[in-house]
Amino acid sequence: MARWPDQPQPAEERAGEQAAPGHRPVADRRAPADRSALADGLGRWSRESLRQRLDRLPDWHPSRPSQPDRPGGQREETLPDGPQVRPEPLTDAQHEDRVRHIRGQLDRARDQGLATDRQHLADQRLGIWSKDRRDAHDAIVADLYEMASNVPCERKAIMAGGLGGAGKSTVLGDHAHVEQSRYLTINPDGIKEAMARRGLIPQLDGLSPMEASDLVHEESSHIAKLLAGRAVRDGKNVIWDITMSSAPSTEQRLDDLDRAGYSTGGIFVAISIDVAVGRAYTRHRQGHEDYRAGIGFGGRYIPPEVIKAQADPDWGSVNRRTFEKVKPRFADWAVYDNSVTGRDPMLIDVGHCRRQREEW
């Protein structure tokens, strides 16, 4: 199976390299006749036959020759200077074909137990990950923490909630006037990108790393908790950028902050379910076009039915219901409506509940 350029090489492919104790390299375990048959089989794959197979791939497939060489998820700022030629955007029909492929691949991957919490939890009951994954978790946390080395330790926190695509970061910086450089932002989706950068997301045929990132959902949440735990122990200012779809999880985060003596504010950015579905579609499609051009790790695909399941008859979404439940625990809070694309978010409600604190 093909690998992303930055994905570690499996041990089975490192013929002749040092094997684990008690295991011979795969190449050495083959009988001479098997190796001869393998060589004969490879000889039948001529350059022309491979080219014909590649040409038959769908236009949206990352391995199709019309796609630019994948630079291992290199970021836009590392691309060469000068105008970049982007592939022709996929048509609506091609994109819908891709979506069907994504859904099928993810369903099969889950059925085959490819989610990383199924593959790499050494102890499911105790939640202990394998050593190589623990080492990767520690490295990600260390990198993210180092990037926040200038964030002060004032025991201030903000919990920002809302459906995906609500625009929480925009509201925080441009409308709530939060100086985000003074906070370590903890966002499980951002951690998924850090995992993609290290080749930790299972590779699925025809999917970008972020399209396959649902398979690391539990693991990315675990890493987010590790990062938050380190920050809270040091008293570092934090922003939890979450959806608030789960009331128990939101309350647990507040409990942790309260025990550590934090003063926590809350911000909720409200959008309708229909708007969330539309924005998820747009963000996924744009992310994939960037990926085809060699930028980033692709767009995350969120099935519409998953978003629609967050609907609530009283508050519009279960996310908003969670916020309304926990807002008495915030020192102060604000709600913004960002449902209208092209219009600035509107402040629709504010309040002060617990001990007063300094400006964010």
Protein architecture, described:
With 360 residues, the chain is α/β, with parallel strands linked by helices. It has a domain at 116-352: Rossmann fold. It contains 13 helices and 10 strands. The protein has helices spanning 26-29, 32-43, 47-55, 92-111, 116-119, 131-147, 168-175, 188-197, 217-234, 247-259, 273-292, 304-308, 318-326; strands at 121-123, 128-129, 156-161, 184-186, 238-241, 263-270, 311-312, 316-317, 332-337, 346-352. The strands form 3 sheets. Strands 4-5-3-6-9-10 form a 6-stranded mixed β-sheet, sandwiched between helices. A two-stranded antiparallel sheet has the order 1-2. α6 packs across α9 and α8 packs across α9. The longest helix is centred in the N-terminal third of the chain and has 20 residues, at 92-111. The chain is globular and about 50 Å long. It starts with 25 loop residues before the first helix and ends in an 8-residue tail after the last strand. Residues 1-50, 68-80 and 356-360 have low confidence and may be disordered.
